[in-house]
Amino acid sequence: MFKNFMRKHFRKINEINEKYATPSLVMSRPVKVCLLLLRCYLLLLVGLLLYKFITVLTA
Amino acid sequence: MNIFTKLFYMFRRSWKALRLFLILSGPGLVVMIADNDAGGITTYAATGAKYGYNFIWFLIALVPVAYFVQEMTVRLGAVTKRGHAEAIFENFGAFWGWFSLIDLVFCDWLTLITEFIGMTAAMGIFGVPPWLTILGVIGIMGFMVLNGRYWTWEKITMGFCLLNLIYIPAAFWVRPDTSAVLAGVIPNLPGGKFDNQLFFFLMANIGTTIAPWMIFFQQSAVVDKGMTEKDIPFGKFDTLLGSILTVVVAAFIIIVVGTVLPGMEIDDAAQASKMLMGTHGYAGTFMAIGLFDAGLLGAICISLASSWALGEIFGWAHSLNNKIKEAPWFYAAYFLALVTAGGVVLIPGAPLVLITLFVQVVAVTLLPAALVFLILLLNDEKTMGAYKNTLFENIVNIGIVSVIVVLSSLYAASALFPSLFG
Fold it and tell me: B256-285: buried (b, 16+ CB within 10 Å) or exposed (e) per residue?
């Protein structure tokens, strides 16, 4: 039962990935810049979280 | 046409508009009042105790901030008939879609825990054990959604929103100095100097004004309610009224705490309620009832924001107009979030303080992305047509979003590194 549930939902995730593979919004330069800045921002946040995690562990 | 006939037609037109507004109002009022959730009440109580009435002007300044961000979700939902999660998947692709969905569900679940912490603390004041509060809350929330009608759910929620106004009589009860309150409405520098602590409180108050779940919730609610382009003016007014009410409630909390507990260190709203009860029994009781109601309203909206988003992406039936048999996964997600979040609060020795701090950090990973996506989508002429952002809206919204992103990031940094702001 669990196996069937997982298989069904993995298939669903693949379907979703295929359905939304191509963004429908026109990727103009401002849009690309915004998305790039967002990626950088998230990397910075993840970096801060990792730093905090390491400092807590080593303290 | 004589004057009486003119007056009659004017009255009839106004009455018709009011009736239509009463039918169409809801998502904006609910989301804005629910924004004053358990965490928000604690922030306002701590602010009132620390700075007295001097922060009221700043809260008033937050009305346009909340309004301009949330009215974009009304337009986007009414025009596209899609929730925010689905809009992100479709317009920005699967990577940003999954990022937003997973982050939203996780952040909502953590926030739900904080709502349960607030509700159990509030009911604890009246001697109700936490397990009973959690069971009662799940029962109330189950009853609200299982009748299978969006309209009924919305009207019950509006009743809880009305209860949120309980802080207003509480403020009259404590007899504040009216001239001092009015002086707080005029812009001033709380505490007389700009220091790290003031900066922290500014960030905390802005942080409670806009949360990621609010964007996802209101857009999905607009869609579930079936609002269309012609309903946008009513949706905007509903949102404006909600943003004014949320600030009114926040201001009255500051007045209550600022009058009775000036200069006290407040760690949470339940503690403030207990302290108030010592000198002003009714005001303290009202504060505790208000805290429970705030947590309940937050829980109602947050759990639905996640369930709607999951339903949109996984293609499940995801309307409150569906019976449980018609949308089993939607309701399963709703109850799973509630039961597990409530369960965490009951675990002995659970790191609840850590969870409360962690929520702020997780919210900040999603908030900038959700806001940036919102502005980009509202500028897409192909999707929005005549309802896209005007130049004025873009200037205002980009300004607001930039300030929110910078300040909420600093707030999260201060939660991670408490020594950062002294």
Answer: bbbbbbeeeebebbbbbbbbbbeebeebbb
* Residue numbers of chain B with a pLDDT score lower than 70: 1, 21, 23-24, 148, 357, 421-422
Among B90, B92, B312, B414, the strongest candidate for a mutation testing the A interface, having the largest count of A CBs within 10 A, is B92
| Amino acid at site B98 | W
Which pLDDT score is estimated for B51? 87
Which pLDDT score, from 0 to 100, does residue B232 have? Answer: 92
Answer yes or no: do B369 and A38 touch at CB < 8 A: yes
pLDDT computed for residue B277 by the predictor: 82
Chain B interface residues (partner A, CB cutoff 8 A)? 89-94, 96-97, 313-315, 361, 364-365, 368-369, 372, 376-377, 380, 382, 405, 409, 412-413, 416-417
pLDDT digits (tens, 9 = 90+) for A19-53: 888 888 888 898 999 899 989 988 888 888 888 87
Reduced to 3 states, what is the DSSP secondary structure of residue B249? Answer: helix
Tell me how far apart the alpha carbons of residues B369 and B99 are, in angstroms, rounded to a whole number.
9
**Are B92 and A48 an interchain contact pair (Cβ–Cβ within 8 Å)?**
no
CA B310 vs. chain centroid, Å, equals 20
pLDDT at B260: 86
Residues B296, B346: Cα–Cα separation, whole Å: 17
Q: How far apart are CA B361 and CA B357, in angstroms?
A: 7
Q: Report the chain A residue with the minimal C-alpha distance to residue B364.
A: A45
**Residue B21, pLDDT score:** 66
DSSP string, B160-180: HHHHGGGHHHHHHHT---HHH
CA–CA dist B310, B335 (Å, integer) = 13
Q: What is the mean pLDDT of chain A?
A: 84
Is A12's pLDDT higher than 90? no
Give the pair of three-digit tokens for residue B415. 């939660």
Question: Residue A2: which pLDDT band, with cuts at 50, 70 and 90?
Answer: low
Place of tokens 């897409």: B380
Burial of B369 (0-12, 13-18, 19+ CB in 10 A): buried
Q: Which residues of B36-69 are buried (b: 16+ CB within 10 A; e: fewer)?
A: bbbbbbbbbbbbbbbbbbbbbbbbbebbebbbbb
